[in-house]
Design goal:
By secondary structure, the chain is of the alpha/beta class. The protein has 14 helices and 14 strands. Keywords: Zinc.
């Protein structure tokens, strides 16, 4: 049985896989591509180079022949995978020279990826320089709302599993079915140019000890972080499409989470509560009953208007348009960080946590509660966000709750 997917395929219409060379996609993601295709997802394949420089001793004529052969091998491999209707888009950039054409590659991908719900690309930390460039270009070009996954290739053969640069905390494993595994093996065998000696007797590019890493029962991917905070523009679009984008009023997850969060607070009443990213105010309204003063803000004007409506008649509640980290000012007896930290890039998250310590009065509390899976548009998952908050020296944990859906911590300012 397949492992849980990193996202619900019912939300996915289009997926684009990027390969630096013909065969990268088959080695790293053939099983997952079969699954996407079988679920009706529209799959596109972009190949940056023809892989013509696999054997450096070859002259121009031999390189041209190899590039043509590798194109044909990829077409054959896709047929063997049962996804022969996926027609590769060849960019024709120089093999082993993507670093010199990074801007061109990023520009091409920015157009090709603009409608993609899912982007798969080589792991940006892979030892092969072309893999790194293809992965980085994909991250730079991917739409704000796309889910990005990377697949390692030479990591398996050239790095130790204990290498500190491997982001195991962002790993997700996809278990292949028997049929997917069989089809993948047949597809890999189509790349004869890579699994047999080169034109001058060179060792195969993919000898048995390398191929062994791709013959197993699972494929490994890394969630990739765009490195930037989620766009406020994207949230504004969601609120224009629906007054309650996450169904915070009706979903049991939201109602249960609010109940657990409020019951986890150590005190029945607080002086001042600050709530960034208040959304349409469903939690704000309940927090207002537990304090003398509540200061809330959100970057989306439509959300602020809805939150003001939800708290109308509560004179001790002030709600404004502001963003993190800049909007986090003042002094709080309780700071509430709900479903927001994982949307922040590294710099914004670090500044928000630093300001959280500054804003919180000594002995005051911070309530952090986040969905555990990786949310669309988010640079990280809930666990990563909470780890960073928990390691700040200004806080000590008081309450911890971890269930299958969300993570909750209450911390006290030292």
């Amino acid at each position: 049985m397949n492992d849980p997917l990193p996202f619900d395929l019912r939300d996915i219409r289009t997926a684009t896989v990027v390969a630096a060379h013909p065969d990268d996609e088959t080695l790293g993601a053939a099983g997952f591509l079969q699954r996407l295709h079988s679920e009706g997802v529209s799959v596109s394949l972009v190949v940056a180079t023809d892989g013509e420089a696999a054997f450096p001793r070859s002259d121009h004529r031999l390189r041209k022949q190899l590039g043509e052969l590798r194109r044909a091998e990829l077409t054959d491999s896709l047929t063997r995978l049962g996804i022969g209707d996926v027609e590769p888009l060849w960019l024709g950039l120089p093999d082993s020279g993507l670093s010199e054409h990074a801007a061109t590659l990023t520009g091409e991908l920015r157009v090709l990826l603009r409608d993609s719900d899912v982007c798969l690309a080589p792991w940006p930390g892979d030892p092969h320089p072309d893999h790194r460039e293809a992965g980085l270009a994909t991250l730079h070009a991917a739409p704000d709302n796309a889910r990005c996954l990377s697949y390692p290739i030479w990591m398996w053969h050239q790095l130790s599993p204990h290498d500190s640069g491997i982001p195991w905390h962002r790993a997700v494993r996809y278990a292949l079915t028997g049929a997917e595994r069989t089809a993948k093996a047949k597809a890999i065998s189509a790349f004869v140019s890579q699994t047999t000696p080169g034109p001058h007797g060179e060792e195969p590019i993919l000898p048995p000890e390398v191929l062994a890493h791709f013959e197993g029962e699972e494929e490994l991917f890394f969630h990739e972080r765009p490195g930037r905070s989620a766009s406020a523009r994207r949230f504004a679009e969601l609120y224009r499409a629906s007054p309650d984008p996450w169904k915070t009023e009706t979903r049991w997850y939201e109602r249960r989470k609010r109940s657990v969060a409020l019951s986890s607070l150590p005190l029945p009443h607080y002086g001042t509560i600050i709530e960034p990213a208040c959304g349409n105010g469903n939690l704000t309204r309940e927090l207002a009953a537990r304090c003398d003063r509540l200061l809330a803000f959100d970057p989306v004007p439509d959300a602020v208007a809805a939150a003001r409506t939800a708290t109308s008649g509560m004179s001790h509640v002030d709600i404004d348009v502001a963003t993190l980290p800049e909007g986090l000012t003042g002094q709080a007896d309780l700071l509430v960080l709900s479903e927001i930290l994982y949307y922040l890039g590294d710099a914004d998250l670090a500044e928000t946590i630093a300001r959280s310590a500054t804003v919180s009065r000594r002995g005051g509390h911070v309530l952090a509660v986040h969905w555990k899976p990786w949310a669309p548009d988010a640079p990280r998952d809930g666990w990563d966000a909470h780890r960073r908050l928990l390691t700040h020296p200004g806080f000590e944990p008081l309450v911890a709750h971890d269930d299958e859906e969300f993570l909750l911590h209450v911390l006290q300012r030292r």
